[in-house]
Amino acid sequence: MALGRVIYVAHTVCIRSELQPMAPDRIGSSSSSRQRDLVFVVNPLGANGRTGKEWRKLVPYLRSRLGKECNICESITSGPCHAIDITREAIREGADAVIAVGGDGTLHEVVNGFFWAGKPVVSQVKESTHSTALGLIPLGTGSDFARTFGWKNDPHEAIERVARGLRSMIDVGVITGESCDHHYFINVADIHLSAKAGFYASRYKRFGNLCYVIGALQAFIGHQNQDMRIRFNDGPWETCPQVTALCIGNAKYFGGGMKITPNADPFSRNLEVVTLQNFKWYDFVLKLHKLYSGTHLSVKNVSDRRD
Question: pTM for this one?
């Protein structure tokens, strides 16, 4: 597993990569004779409540498809950050996989549950070589992380991926602040306007993926572009004037299908950093189609860097 580290203090950003290789294997390769323990972390409020409804319809098929070879545990979240606690407990109890059921928010919490105090959470009941896999059944509003792999919002396809039990190495980004706390991301970390847009978008999920566009337009109200200092991989500090949004991509998509970091690859051990400068709300509207198609890197006031 590779860690791309981002340190953000006020309007100063430091970005570097740390590499920790982990060999891919199969979930059941070391103990194929026993049933796998799978924990499904479900956010019933995802996609404006659609996730919970779809999950209830899916459970009978899930049990018929996996019930003979797996021990299935269903954990329903009750509020923000609950998925983090569920995941940590599952890993400590030796789960073979923790599978996020929902959108990118649920996946984000589950990913953070794999770590504690800057270190991976480990099983307390199984051998030291045992590791818990991360899985995903995309049933959220955006499901942007799944787009990078070309996965559809088809839960039956997702269950088949879980049934195959294949693991692969993937990168994870980590943000550390002045207090040395750690916050992990597997998709795209964003700063300034795009972060505010994500906050406002949560109010409009009834509009589907359009909620992110509405959220961005609302975020522009009262927004001021600001200068930032950025450092890449312990290089010199660089001043980046009038930053509208800074996006650090481990994968390609955010905001309901915007291909914001089109060259990012979660297997590359590198992060892609895209900076939007001096944007106004009308620039966002006029260039929206380029943001969705991933052709915005050629636009004036958009810069791209991979480290």
Answer: 0.86
Phi (first) and psi of residue 83, to 5 degrees? -60, -30
Pairwise CA distance, residues 166 & 33, whole Å: 16
Question: Quick check: is 104 catalytic?
Answer: yes
Choice between 40 and 177, residue whose per-residue pLDDT is larger: 40
Instruction: Give the mean pLDDT of the chain.
Output: 86
- Give which of 98, 105, 50 is closest to 79, Cα–Cα: 105
| Mean pLDDT of the region 15-25 | 40
Domain boundaries, the chain: 34-172, 188-306
- At residue 224, φ and ψ (nearest 5 deg) are -130, 125
Q: Please, which residues bridge with residue 26 across strands? A: 166
> At residue 74, does pLDDT exceed 70?
yes
Residue 276 pLDDT exceeds 70: yes
Class of domain 188-306: mainly beta
CATH number of the domain located at residue range(s) 34-172 in this protein: 3.40.50.10330
Out of 104, 144, 171, 190, pick the active-site residue.
104
Residue 260 · residue 299 · CB < 8 Å: no
Report the Cα 191 to chain-centroid distance in Å: 15
Q: Given a cut of 90, is residue 27 above it in pLDDT?
A: no
CA distance 233 to 18: 9
By DSSP bridging, strand 238-249 and strand 133-138 are unpaired
Report the pLDDT averaged over residues 187-208: 90
Enter the tokens of residue 162: 């879980």
81-98 pLDDT, tens digit per residue, is 999 999 999 999 999 999
